[in-house]
Design goal:
Distance between the termini: 13 Å
Shape: globular
Mean pLDDT: 93
CATH architecture: 3-Layer(aba) Sandwich
Number of domains: 1
Order of helices and strands: HHEEHEEHEHEHEEEHH
Radius of gyration: 18 Å
CATH class: Alpha Beta
Length: 243
Amino acid sequence: MKPLLFLRSLLFYIGYFFATMLISILCMVMFWLLPLEKRFALYSLWCRFVLFWLRVTCGVRFQIQGLDNIPDEPVVVLSTHQSAWETIFLYYTLSPVCPILKKELLDIPFWGWAVRLQQPIAIDRSKPREAGRALLTQGKDRLQRGMSVVIFPEGTRSAPGTIRPLNKGGAKLATTAEALALPVIHNAGWCWPARTIYKYPGTITIRFGDPMVGSGKSSAQLTEEYGAWLQDNLDVITTDGRS
């Protein structure tokens, strides 16, 4: 079983690598030909391919719950974080989305260069106060320009079936910008675990909740509201989706 899993996972990463190279080059070329809003279509195409290729090579599918809860306006997405899968899925589903990432990732050849052209919010984790200010000022700007902002309040990836303590950064952006916060929970870590090449066949469940109003609340209140919603939806995150 392990050798087959390894070979399928390796095949996925080979396709993933070449698709990333191709889209990154296209994005850099199209920077001179297309406006920012149009270039999001290329990133969305890459996300769609990765999800398709993951299903073909590794047998990883997904089911969406609460799709009707996604509003027709930019939102601050508050999502649990277990793998790279949810980043790819959310950027595809909610496009246009402004990425938030560590600034050193922008130096990665091709991929980082292409992402830099999408005007991401690049933060320096060694300077938390500066990073917080950048998130608020740039996040508010991106929301006003029609982009949603995806934030993982856990701060780092959690193990399957668990939730780390939540920080208030995402909630603070939603309350400051008076934007809606879209709660998300999933169990992607069972099929795409962190820090390993292996991808396990199965079905990932991702659930969107009713948007939460950020206006008129403190970041602590909104964070508490999101935390309560997570507790009410633990059936998603604790379900092992592997087949």
